[in-house]
Design brief:
With about 375 residues, the chain is an alpha/beta fold. It contains 14 helices and 13 strands. Helix 9 links the parallel strand 11 and strand 12.
Amino acid sequence: MITVNGPGELYYWALTLMNSIIASKLPIQIWIFLTPCQFSTGYEQKVIQENHSIAKVFLPSETKQICWGKKPLPFPRQGLILFLGGDIYNAVLLKKRSGYPLWVYGSHLRWPKYVDLYLARFLRDYEQYQFPQKKFVGDLLYSYVIQKKYPTEQENRFFCHGEPRILFLPGSRLFAYDYLIPFYKKIARLLLPIFPKSSSVVGFPEHYSTKDVPADDWGELEMPFYFGVTSHLMNQADVAIAIPGSSNLELFYRKKKALIILPLEANSQNIPLTGIPEFIGKIPGIGPIIKKKIIYSMNSQKKWVSLPNILMNREIFPELRGKVCPEDVVRKIENMIHDSDFDYEIPEDEFPTTADSVLTQLIQENFYDKREKSL
């Protein structure tokens, strides 16, 4: 039983793990519980609806009813709950309902007294949490990058004009598109006179389509939109422009040049927060003003917002945050394209590529081996 809340966790974590489980031929039945979460996109079901390896899928409303005992659900005699995202309390409630052990994968360990095994995604988290039952497994996203190999003929069909090949990544949050897409268009227009033979494309998650993209007049600017082929685009791109998110790590693992931008000036009212700050932001009149101040204060306190920079504790990807204008981005991109010294090493001990196989082996050892001993 896997609890998860967003397309990124589903696509990069859950499905990557499932591919490993299927390859190992474990006789396992997989249930997916989509959890209620303010950060979910509403497209989570679409990501998994065609995957025949998943026995059951529970929508957020169903998960909530099951967790709180309002909808009965017969649980098999033996099982395991694997938390991959969302509010961990839902996984705790499922543990109470089912009696199954709870494994938590990720960077934050909450409700520790209910957790049977903590699976650290990053070495720093493994070292940080003083928890008796823990194991460092690595990033399932890195396993996905290793799994996802493309034939050469598929790698040369997206950037149609010339070089440099510039990739724009707006992320998976629809609330940001109304601002980001026109912003990206301005950047592309300014870059064209500097690099007249360049090719620019925009990469969207596979669960979106053109109807989700704000209508805008692109004029003579040829900038194709692609859906569900972001990894292909990353492989082929010379440089990427992205907002903070899981795409930053994939770019890091693929050793691509990237500029991370976080424009806050015109978009702060739509940025979701948690708890009291989000509640304050909804107060009519003064609420959005206070929320904007909170966001700027939070931003000023952070040395980095891009996860590769945070994990490596140095600048892997340059960041532009706060009041960001297209001209700033263009100057930075121009310097990055001409910079031939961009390189870094990914420490294998901190970033193993085998998270999927390690986790699959743990499932086998801690579930099936125990069952055999009890027979």
